[in-house]
Amino acid sequence: MGLIFGKITVETPKYEVVQSSVDYEIRKYPPSVAAEVAYDPSRFKGNKDGGFSVLANYIGALGNPQNAKPEKIAMTAPVITKSPGSESEKIAMTAPVVTKGDNNMVTMQFLLPSMYKRAEEAPKPLDERVVIREEGERKYGVVKFAGRATDQVVEEKVENLRKSLERDGHKVVGRFLLARYNPPWTIPALRTNEVMIPVE
Question: What is the sign, positive or negative, of the torsion defined by CA atoms of 116, 7, 197, 35?
Answer without folding.
Answer: positive
